[in-house]
Design a protein that fits this description.
Layout: E1 9-12, H1 16-24, E2 36-41, E3 45-47, E4 51-53, E5 56-60, E6 66-71, H2 82-93, H3 98-105, H4 109-137, H5 150-169, H6 177-184
Parallel strand pairs: 1-6
Antiparallel strand pairs: 2-5, 3-4, 5-6
């Protein structure tokens, strides 16, 4: 499971070769703005829907903090990839129950129930964050359709924001809606608490772009 990480996390793209190139070229940045440099690896782990991963570690030359570079295909402290979790959330927004979703995704009922509860707790913050980013990416975007429940509203915002990012930034086919959601929330979509984070709307994917 992608948990028990002592070091802070920086979200990066899913192409391991490209991430390594950018890291060695000094193109990846710490949240403080300093450049990141290679600093070993985290332990190898398996993420369902993604595969075997051995996340890179990097150290900031300015603040000297060591970070784990987590691919946007993953979520913090979750053993399933973001797109797998996203499929569950879309199904929930469409009215499916956790047992039905668990059967469809071939995941334990308790696991899916945990995802849904965690997202419900963070849904309003995620919706507000992504809706604000949507307006900045596309000032002409109209109001999003209202649904019965904040979970469905948040899921709608994820899709709309990803579509706006593709239109503005040309991220066509490279980043899924749930990878974008992972990037802008720092992988904390299902974290115990989710607070608004600073998003650079000229590059909302940050190091992942």
């Amino acid at each position: 499971m992608l948990g028990a990480m002592e070091a802070p996390v920086v979200m990066v793209g899913s192409d391991v070769v490209e991430v390594e190139r950018r890291l060695r070229a000094g193109e990846l940045l710490c949240p403080c703005g300093g450049g990141l440099a290679p600093w070993g690896h985290a332990r190898e782990r398996s993420v369902r829907g993604v595969g075997e991963l051995r996340p890179r570690r990097a150290r900031c030359g300015s603040c000297l903090v060591t970070h784990v570079l987590l691919a946007v295909s993953c979520l913090l402290r979750r053993a399933d990839g973001g797109d797998v979790v996203g499929a569950a959330l879309r199904a929930k927004a469409a009215g499916a129950g956790h047992r039905t979703i668990a059967e469809q995704l071939e995941r334990p009922v308790s696991t899916v129930r945990g995802w849904l509860r965690a997202f419900a707790r963070n849904a309003e913050t995620a919706r507000a964050l992504l809706t604000a980013l949507l307006v900045q990416l596309d000032p002409l975007a109209g109001p999003l359709p209202a649904h019965q429940g904040v979970v469905a509203d948040a899921v709608e915002a994820v899709g709309a924001c990803a579509a706006a990012a593709r239109r503005r930034l040309g991220v066509v086919g490279a980043v899924s809606p749930w990878q974008l959601a992972a990037a802008v929330t720092g992988g904390r979509l299902l974290a115990p608490t989710l607070s608004a984070v600073s998003i650079n709307t000229s590059r909302p994917l940050g190091n992942a772009g």
